[in-house]
Amino acid sequence: MKVFQPENKRFSKIFGSILFIIFSLLITYISYKKIYFYKGIHLPNFYFYLALSILGIFISIVIFFLKNSTSIKLFLVFFSTVFITYIFEYSMNYINIKDGFRIKLAKEKNISYDTRTIFEVHKNLKKKYGSASIGYPVVGYVNPDGLKINNERKLPLAGISNSSTVVCNETGKWSIYKSDRYGFNNTNELWDYNLVDVILIGDSYLHGDCVDPNDNISGKLISKSNLKILNLGFRGNSPYMQLASLIEYGLEKKPKKIFMFFSEENDFSEIFRDKDKEILTNYLNDDYSQNLINFQSQIDRNLKIIHKKNIYLRNIKLQNIRLNLINKVKAILINPKEEQKIKHIPNKNSTMIYKKIIEKINSISKINNINFSIVYLPSYERYRGDDYSELFRIVETICDELSINLINIHKDVFEKQNDPMKLFPFNIYSHYNEKGYELIADVLFKNLRNFK
Asked: Which of 105, 138, 367, 437 is the most exposed place for a label (fewest CB within 10 A)?
């Protein structure tokens, strides 16, 4: 008599358990990033990763009950796929697939396009100058609680100092600059002056994405005015961080004028992102400072470690493939012609915080006899049909209530163009091009002449 023996499913159980652990850890990781780094509101494509992880867990449970022979075949497929994927990811760091659409448009328009990846550019700069850095935004790369320096937590507001810094390529040419002694996009000569004429605070639009230093807002304004203009803008900097930059680096230069740049694209969402970061919220209190100006060497040392790790982590996290895959899926699922236009209604809490930040800067300006203006920057989506009227009305109301001069770049620059899209590289989603920045500088120069 033949005795029935249950089939040995040891391999299936091991393989299923490994996949279950991998996808469980992925859920834990993305949840940690969302809750800790992005404070619950801004992890790009969070639900895509969550759905993928849940699907992976479901598959791992199914595998747990399969025959060994079937599981072995699936394992070989899985292992081969992972291996090939990582080879492809590594290769993508040397093939600029991400900007394929821009490269295509450049060829159609007979415009030269530098097809190197950011890592190739960084590597070439390092060979040429001995050291180089990538202009990563602080947010997303540095812990929300800052860096540990001398048993204190310090949150940097810019990049690595005195470094050839590569930023981005939207026009066909890589944006590269030599950072100043505090990691901003200025010449060191400006810091040698006891006084400057103008301080600029803002995010990537002010930082100079993605043009040469002479072609960004501060570069154009310096050439037109011949004034001492200090640019404290940096990628990803929220209004909280802009206030912090002014206090840490700007006020000691006793400027006569402050331009604060408001980006309708993301400033309110970035306020919400940073609202629970104690270091940043402390700047709304009187006399708070991190004294960052005295810790640049320690900040540089920490940022170099983080940036070095990030180059490898991008490969491990399949950053290039993920972004390309997600963009392809979005392109398939969303027909641009049928895309719903969005009415941007600011979060009430963010509105209240923004007003507090502006009140703080306005108060500082009055105490120090500084003329203060807010420069309202329109987004690409506005000219695709999105409605920002409510957001602008809120900013305008705040400025009216506090008697702050508001410079409306949409009205003064973009609305005067036959085709506003021409002020964006290749007429697609981007920061402004050189012409756009120059026209903004013209408006600011006129404002400075009126101020004088």
From this structure: 367
Residues of the chain with pLDDT under 50: 1, 4-5, 337-338
CA nearest to 23, candidates 92, 89, 78: 78
Q: What are the residue ranges spanned by the domains of the chain? A: 10-92, 118-451
**Residue 332 pLDDT:** 56
Determine the longest span between alpha carbons in the chain, in angstroms. Answer: 106
Instruction: Say whether the peptide bond before residue 399 is cis (omega within 30 degrees of 0).
Output: no
Q: What is the dihedral of CA 344, 345, 346, 352, to 10 degrees?
A: 150
Q: Are 148 and 279 in contact (CB under 8 A)?
A: no
Q: 53 and 98 in contact (C-beta within 8 Å)?
A: no
Share in percent of the chain as helix, strand, coil (round to 5): 55, 10, 35
Q: In terms of C-beta density within 10 A (0-12 exposed, 13-18 middle, 19 or more buried), how is residue 441 classed? A: buried
CATH code: domain 118-451 is: 3.40.50.1110
pLDDT at 339: 54
Would you call 423 helix, strand, or coil by DSSP? helix
Can you list the pairs that 222-225 forms with residues at least 24 positions away whose Cβ atoms lie under 8 Å? 224/441, 224/442, 224/445, 225/197, 225/445, 225/448
Q: Is the pTM of this model over 0.90?
A: no
Question: Tokens 């640019």 appear where?
Answer: 231
Three state DSSP letters for 343-405: ECCCCHHHHHHHHHHHHHHHHHHHHCCCEEEEEEECCHHHHHCCECHHHHHHHHHHHHHCCCE
CA atoms within 13 A on the CB side of 268: 20
Exposure on the CB side of residue 412, measured as CA atoms within 13 A = 18
